[in-house]
Amino acid sequence: MNNTPAEHISVLAEFAAGISLKKNAVVVDATIGLGGHARIFAKSLSKEGTLLGLDIDQNSLDAAKRNLDDLQCKVLLVRDNFANIAEVLRQNNIEKVDLVFADLGICSVQLSDSARGLSFNENMKLDMRLDDRLSVTAADIVNSIDEKGLADMIYRFGEERASRKIARSIISARSRKKIDTTAELVNIVCRALKCDPLSRRSKIHPATKTFQALRIAVNSELENLERFLAVSPDLLSKDGKIAVISFHSLEDRIVKNDFRRKKKDGIYEIATKKPVTASLDEIRQNPRSRSAKLRMAVRL
Ligand SMILES: C[S@@+](CC[C@H](N)C(=O)[O-])C[C@H]1O[C@@H](n2cnc3c(N)ncnc32)[C@H](O)[C@@H]1O
């Protein structure tokens, strides 16, 4: 089912393959990544169809370009943030879209890329920018914000109940030495939570929530998602679909509430009464799919 190189397995690919599209449809993959989902959609498209792929990471775009060079439909790849999707479509003379798709978060390749500094399992320079044109890194944040600001950020974006303890531990560590690496941050979190970074009693790494919070803050992830959802109805043709895959409850809540509000306002029909999740089989093959939730709505 998956068509990208082994480094990244596209989640919920079976559902994506079932989304019906006209041969001449215009499809926007707002998070093209390595192009796995895009290739699935493009299978339904003829030469008259268009696939527009967006990504903020040049490496992802380069990989997508390599992986999608044999498609018969028109392929446009643009480096931009999906928050700017309306401008991107205008610049490419696209008026209406039949499917807008977003698979939020990061690819496995980005997680293991030492230049990105996203992993709590490997020691990397603490960076976390998906778009290297952004100026503020995760290290800038942990070394500059005051204790309350850090605690609030870790609580709000990581839903971490021990956020105050972790913030205190960050302030104490950085008074001795600037925090530069992911391993240093992991040790600081573990010290705050009184756990051993190497012992794995829980399935979830103790630094998961703190890392999630920082990544969201560095990349303004929730704000970008809200901007993307806000403009989407104007871009969709009648019966056009919007499908979003999220990986944590903060994102999923934003998508769920947006679709519900727009259903109430007569803008969308919700196509997935409950979010689509991965089968046990898929989770076994690709543990990352465990937390994936796909919601789809149709433009009325
Ligand atoms: C989970 S991967 C997508 C994988 C893709 N669906 C596939 O099957 O290969 C998410 C991608 O979205 C990109 N991304 C994250 N936030 C973005 C944003 N605000 N605008 C555009 N791209 C974004 C990331 O750089 C990453 O390449």
Write the layout of secondary structure elements.
Layout lengths: L12 H5 L8 E4 L6 H7 L7 E6 L2 H10 L6 E6 L5 H7 L5 E7 L4 H5 L25 H7 L2 H12 L4 H14 L5 H12 L14 H12 L1 H15 E11 L2 H16 L3 E3 L9 H6 L7 E7 L1
Parallel strand pairs: 1-2, 1-4, 2-3, 4-5
Antiparallel strand pairs: 5-7, 6-7
Helix pairs in contact: 7-8, 7-10, 8-9, 11-12
The structure holds S-adenosylmethionine (SAM).
The site of S-adenosylmethionine has 24 residues, from helix 2 and strand 2.
Describe the structure.
With 300 residues, the protein is of the alpha/beta class. The protein has two domains: 13-109 and 221-299, Vaccinia Virus protein VP39 (Rossmann fold); 112-219, Putative methyltransferase TM0872, insert domain (DNA polymerase, domain 1), CATH 1.10.150. It has 13 helices and seven strands. The chain has helices at residues 13-17, 36-42, 58-67, 85-91, 108-112, 138-144, 147-158, 163-176, 182-193, 208-219, 221-235, 249-264, 280-285; strands spanning 26-29, 50-55, 74-79, 97-103, 236-246, 268-270, 293-299. The chain has a seven-stranded mixed β-sheet with strand order 3-2-1-4-5-7-6, with helices on both faces. Strand 1, helix 2 (36-42) and strand 2 (50-55) form a beta-alpha-beta unit. Helix 11 packs parallel to helix 12. The model is unreliable at 1-6 (pLDDT under 50). Bound molecules: S-adenosylmethionine.
